[in-house]
Specification:
The structure holds 2 protein chains of 2 kinds. Chain A is α/β, with parallel strands linked by helices. Chain A is 28% helix and 31% strand. In chain A, the strands form 6 sheets. Chain A has a 6-stranded mixed beta sheet with strand order 2-3-1-4-12-5, with helices on both faces. In chain A, strands 9-8-10-6-11 form a 5-stranded mixed beta sheet. Chain A has a 5-stranded mixed beta sheet with strand order 17-14-18-25-19, sandwiched between helices. The N and C termini of chain A lie far apart (48 Å). The mean pLDDT of chain A is 93. Chain B is built from 14 helices and 18 strands. The chains are: A alpha/beta, B alpha+beta.
Chain lengths: 472, 418
C-alpha cells in the first residue's frame, strides 16, 4: 500500500487541486471530510492521511508514509536538524508560497540598533514555531547566549514584552502590519514541496504515487535559503537591559480552551475586555489595577510561567504534566482547578490487541514481531515517561501536533490521547488500556509566587479562581 | 548459516575491546608521563557543558556547531541548552576562568568529545590535550610542541614532522583585500571549512599581490629562509602580516632547535575560530595527522581583558590504532587458581593463594580469562592435599608438578612476572 501524507489547514484546498490535476484526486480530502484517512479515488493501492503540516516531514522521514506535500517552513525546520536523514525534496509545487522572516517591533530596533549590531547584546530572545531554524540563525549571527522561545503558535504576539524578535512563516505581510513588526531579514522564500522518504525511494517502487505528482508543473525559482545576515563581531558583549516588570501578568488560552476559560472567569466574576467566549484580542484590557493579560497558546503556558514571563496562566493539566515530565525541576505548579474541559489522558490501543494491560500488549506485540513499539502523542514527554515506566523496552515516541484519529494501529501501537466520552475511541475501534491522568483546565503559577512582586494580587486571583465551582 | 545478531551499539560509537584498550592505555600513559615531566597537571571536565560556551563568536565555527549534540536537559525549562562537549579547550578555559584566573596554568586532560559524523564515522573521539594559559609566548608554544613530539617519540613514532602556520596571515590578507569587518569573519570561516576560493577572491581584489600569493600557496617552507622570502614579498603589504611572520619565526627557531623536521605551510588552517596566532600540526610518517594546536589569545576572557593561551591535542584513537603491537604488554604468565572442590575451605585457599601470588607480582585469577599471555598455568589447590597441596601444570599439556608450599610454587614458576 502506498501512503501519502497530506496537509490540513490553509494548504489543503490547493493541495487537493494539485492532486486532482495529477490524477490522484481524493473527494474526501477535497471536500474537507472530517475523517483523517481518506482514500485516493479509484486507487485501492493507495491511501492518504491528513496531518498537521509540522508532522508530515517527521512521518515521511520515519518511513511511515512514502511521500507527502508540505509547506517549505516545516521541511526546512526538519532538515535544519536532520539534513541527511530520511527526507528528500522532490519537487517545488506551484502553490503554498511562504517566506520565513525575522521581524521585531520598531521600538526594539531602536533599542538594539540595526540587525548587524545585534551580536553586541547577550540574551536576545527569538520567539518562533521553528526553533531549529532560529537556533541556526542565532549561531550563524554569533548571537551571545540567545534564548530561543520555542512555541506552538502566535510567535508574532511575543515581542516586545516576551521576546525581542520573532521568526515567522508568512504568506503575506498582514501579520507584520497587524502586530506593528518591522521586517529585519527574509531567511527563505519557497513554495510547498513534494517530499518523499529516502529509504522508500531507495528500496520500493513508488512510481505509481510519485510519477503523477512529479508530472505537476514545478515552481520556477531558486529556493535556496538566503545567506545568514551579515553582522559585526564583538569581543565583549553586553547583557540586554530589560526594565523590571511593574504589573502582574496573566496568560489566557486561545483555541479549544478559550470557551472553557471564559466561563470559568465568568464564574469567578472576572472579565477582561477583548476576551470573549469565541473571540479574543492578543492583549485584552484588564480592569484590575496592576494586572496585564495576554492571550497565547495553552501549550506554551507552562514554559512561559516557568521562566517568569508570566505570573499566572490558564492551561490544561495535560500540558502542565507534559512540561513537568520534560523538566522535573521546573518551578511551575497547579494552584487552582477550574474543573472544565475534563477528559482522561489514556494509553489507547487497537481493540484487536488481545490484552487488558500495557504489559500484556507489549508482550503480544513482541511475539508478533514488533521489535520497536511506536508510541504516538501530542505530549511527547508524557509519552516518553509512560513508555519508560511501562518498561516497553525498545520504543520510539512519535510526536503529533494533532490529528491523531486513525493513527493506531497502522502507524503506531499506542496512542496517548485525551478522551472525553469514549465515543471517538469506539468509532475508531480503539480501547483504553491505562488511564494516565485526568485533565481539566487549571490555573498555574511558579511555586515561589508568594515571594514575587505582586504577590498580594496573585494570591487574590488564585483565591478567586479556586472558588470556581465545577459546572453542573 | 551464520546467525546475524543486530548490534545494539549506538551508531557512531565504538566499543574498545581488551587489546584495543591495552593500546589506548599505552597512549594515555605516554601522554600523562610526558606532560607531567614538563610540569603539566591533569584536569577533568564534565561531559555536559552549557551550549552557549561554544556558540559565541570566536569559539567554534558555524560548520562545527552544526555537528554538536545539544539538547534541553532536565533543567532546561528556561530554554538553555546543554551539549555533549564538542571540544576540550573551551571547557578547560571555563575551568581556568572560574578556578585559576590570574595565574599561569599548565593543564592536560584525556577526554572524549562528541561531534556528529556521517554514516558509521566515529561520533565520539578521544583526545589527549594540553593548555598553557597565561603570558608565555613563545616559550609556551615551543614547550607544547616539544611535549607533543615527546609523546609521539615515547610511543615509538620517531619520524614526526611539525607543520607550522599562522592564522594572522590569512586575516591580514583579508583585511588588505578590503573585506568589511563583518565579512572578514565570514570569509575566515570559509577558509576554516577548507574553501580556498577565498584565496582566489583575495587575488582578484588585490591583483598586485597575485605573484606574492603564489609564494604562500604554492611553496612550503622548511626554515627561516622561507620566512625571510615572505617578509620581502609582503613587507609593504601589511604590518599585521609581518608581525605574524615574526611570531612564526620564533616558533620555527624552537622547532629547529628540537631537531624536528619542519614544514611552514601558510595554507594550513586549524578547525577552530579561536586560534589567533601560530598554529601547528604533528604529522607521522606517511603524512598521518596525529593532532595539533596553536595559540588562542582572545578566548580566555574575564573582567573585560583577555589572557593569552596556547594548546594542542593528539588523537588518542588514531595513535592507538597505529601503535605497533607490543607483545611485552601481554602478560608473561597467567595463573588460573582452581580449587579442587567447591567447598569453602578449598575456595578460601584458592582465594588466598591468588592474592598472595598477585602481591608477589604474578597475574593470578580464579576465573580463567581470555587474556593474551606468553604462558598459561593452572594451579589446583587442595588444603587436604598434603604434599600435593598445590599442583601446577603449564597448559595445555605440561607435566604436573606438585608442592606443599608457596615457595615450591614460586620455584616452579621461576621468575615469570606479569
Amino acid at each position: 500500500m502506498l501512503k501519502l501524507a497530506l496537509p490540513g489547514g490553509d494548504l489543503r484546498p490547493q493541495a487537493a487541486v494539485a492532486l486532482a490535476a495529477a490524477g490522484l484526486a481524493s473527494e474526501g480530502y477535497a471536500h474537507g471530510s472530517r475523517s483523517l484517512s481518506v482514500p485516493v479515488d479509484g486507487r485501492a493501492d493507495m491511501i492518504a492521511r491528513v496531518f498537521r503540516e509540522k508532522d508530515i516531514p517527521v512521518q515521511i522521514a520515519l518511513g511511515a508514509y512514502h511521500a507527502g506535500i508540505c509547506g517549505d517552513p516545516w521541511v526546512r525546520e526538519f532538515l535544519s536538524r536532520y539534513p541527511d536523514e530520511g527526507l528528500v525534496r522532490l519537487r517545488p509545487l506551484e502553490f503554498g508560497g511562504t517566506r520565513l522572516v525575522l521581524a521585531a517591533p520598531a521600538a526594539v530596533v531602536a533599542q538594539l540598533g540595526p540587525l548587524a549590531e545585534w551580536p553586541r547584546w547577550s540574551g536576545i530572545r527569538i520567539a518562533t514555531e521553528f526553533p531549529r531554524i532560529a537556533e541556526r540563525l542565532a549561531t550563524g549571527m554569533r548571537l551571545a547566549r540567545p534564548r530561543i522561545v520555542a512555541l506552538w503558535g502566535a510567535a508574532e504576539a511575543y515581542p516586545p514584552d516576551d521576546a525581542e524578535a520573532c521568526l515567522l512563516a508568512l504568506s503575506d505581510d498582514e501579520p507584520l502590519r497587524r502586530h506593528g513588526l518591522v521586517l529585519l531579514a527574509t531567511l527563505s522564500q519557497a513554495p510547498a514541496w513534494l517530499i518523499a522518504s529516502r529509504q522508500a525511494l531507495a528500496a520500493h517502487d513508488l512510481s505509481p504515487l510519485i510519477g503523477p505528482l512529479l508530472a505537476l508543473p514545478a515552481a520556477a525559482g531558486d529556493w535556496a535559503p538566503a545567506p545568514v545576515p551579515r553582522v559585526r563581531r564583538f569581543a565583549e558583549t553586553t547583557p540586554l537591559p530589560r526594565p523590571p516588570r511593574t504589573a502582574v501578568r496573566l496568560a489566557l488560552p486561545d483555541g479549544h480552551a478559550q470557551p472553557h476559560t471564559y466561563h470559568a472567569l465568568q464564574d469567578a466574576r472576572i472579565a477582561f475586555e477583548g476576551y470573549e467566549e469565541q473571540s479574543a484580542v492578543r492583549r485584552p484590557r484588564s480592569g484590575i489595577p496592576g494586572l496585564e493579560v495576554k492571550v497565547i497558546r495553552p501549550q506554551d503556558m507552562a514554559s512561559q510561567v516557568a521562566t517568569g514571563a508570566f505570573d499566572l496562566a490558564v492551561t490544561g493539566r495535560d500540558w502542565l504534566l507534559d512540561h513537568r515530565y520534560a523538566f522535573p525541576s521546573s518551578p511551575v505548579r497547579e494552584v487552582a482547578d477550574l474543573h472544565r474541559s475534563r477528559y482522561a489522558l489514556a494509553a489507547v490501543v487497537s481493540e484487536d490487541v488481545p490484552a487488558t494491560t500495557i504489559a500484556e500488549a507489549a508482550a503480544w506485540w513482541r511475539r508478533n514481531g514488533r521489535a520497536t513499539i511506536r508510541v504516538a502523542a501530542e505530549y511527547p514527554h508524557l509519552a516518553d515517561d509512560f513508555a519508560r515506566s511501562a518498561q516497553l523496552g525498545r520504543y520510539t515516541v512519535m510526536p503529533l501536533a494533532g490529528a491523531s484519529e486513525g493513527f493506531v494501529p497502522e502507524d503506531a501501537e499506542v496512542l496517548i490521547e485525551g478522551t472525553e466520552t469514549g465515543r471517538s475511541l469506539i468509532a475508531n475501534r480503539l480501547k483504553v488500556l491505562e488511564t494516565l491522568s485526568i485533565s481539566t483546565n487549571c490555573l498555574i503559577a511558579r511555586e515561589d509566587w508568594p515571594l514575587r512582586p505582586g504577590a498580594t494580587l496573585i494570591g487574590d486571583l488564585i483565591e478567586q479562581l479556586r472558588r470556581v465551582p465545577a459546572p453542573v | 548459516m551464520t546467525l546475524q545478531i543486530e548490534s545494539l551499539r549506538t551508531r557512531g560509537m565504538r566499543d574498545l575491546l581488551p587489546r584495543e584498550m591495552a593500546r589506548f592505555r599505552r597512549v594515555e600513559r605516554a601522554f600523562a608521563e610526558t606532560l607531567s615531566a614538563w610540569g603539566y597537571e591533569e584536569i577533568r571536565t564534565p561531559t555536559l557543558e552549557q551550549l552557549h560556551l561554544f556558540t559565541s563568536a570566536g569559539a567554534l565555527s558555524p560548520q562545527l556547531l552544526d555537528k554538536v549534540y545539544s539538547f534541553l536537559d532536565w533543567d532546561g525549562w528556561s530554554g538553555e541548552r546543554v551539549v555533549l562537549r564538542p571540544d576540550a579547550t573551551i571547557p578547560a578555559v571555563r575551568v581556568y576562568n572560574e578556578r585559576m584566573a590570574g595565574s599561569i596554568a599548565k593543564l592536560f586532560y584525556i577526554t572524549n568529545i562528541f561531534r556528529f559524523a556521517q554514516g558509521d564515522e566515529p561520533r565520539e573521539q578521544w583526545q589527549c590535550g594540553a593548555e598553557v594559559i597565561g603570558e608565555t609566548f613563545p616559550r609556551g608554544d615551543i614547550e607544547l610542541i616539544a611535549a607533543g613530539r615527546g609523546v609521539l617519540r615515547r610511543l615509538g613514532f620517531q619520524e614526526t614532522t611539525v607543520r607550522l602556520s599562522h592564522t594572522g596571515v590569512i586575516r591580514a590578507l583579508l583585511e588588505r583585500a578590503g573585506f568589511a569587518e563583518e565579512d572578514q569573519a565570514e570569509q575566515y570561516d570559509r577558509v576554516l571549512d577548507h574553501d580556498m576560493s577565498v584565496i582566489h577572491e583575495i587575488e582578484r581584489r588585490v591583483p598586485e599581490l597575485q605573484a606574492s600569493m603564489h609564494l604562500l600557496t604554492d611553496v612550503k617552507g622548511s626554515g627561516p629562509g622561507y620566512l625571510a622570502n615572505l617578509r620581502a614579498a609582503f613587507a609593504a603589504t601589511s604590518p599585521r602580516l609581518v608581525q605574524a611572520l615574526d611570531e612564526l619565526e620564533q616558533i620555527a627557531a624552537g622547532v629547529a632547535a628540537l631537531g624536528c623536521p619542519l614544514i611552514i605551510d601558510l595554507t594550513m588552517v586549524r578547525d577552530f575560530e579561536y586560534y589567533t596566532g601560530p598554529v601547528f600540526r604533528f604529522e607521522l610518517a606517511g603524512g598521518w595527522e596525529a593532532g595539533g594546536g596553536g595559540r588562542y589569545d582572545a578566548l580566555v576572557r574575564s573582567g573585560g581583558s583577555a589572557t593569552p593561551a596556547c594548546g594542542f591535542a593528539l588523537s588518542l584513537d588514531m595513535l592507538s590504532e597505529r601503535l605497533e603491537a607490543d607483545a611485552s604488554a601481554d602478560a608473561t604468565a597467567v595463573i588460573e587458581v582452581a580449587p579442587a572442590d567447591t567447598g569453602p575451605a578449598c575456595l578460601g585457599l584458592a582465594l588466598a593463594v591468588a592474592l598472595e601470588l598477585q602481591e608477589k607480582g604474578f597475574c593470578a585469577e580464579l576465573v580463567g580469562s581470555r587474556r593474551a599471555a606468553a604462558a598459561r598455568w593452572r594451579l589446583t589447590v587442595d588444603p587436604a592435599g598434603g604434599s600435593a597441596r598445590y599442583v601446577m601444570r603449564l597448559l595445555p599439556d605440561g607435566e604436573p608438578a606438585s608442592g606443599a608450599s608457596m615457595d615450591d610454587l614460586i620455584g616452579v614458576l621461576g621468575r615469570a612476572r606479569c
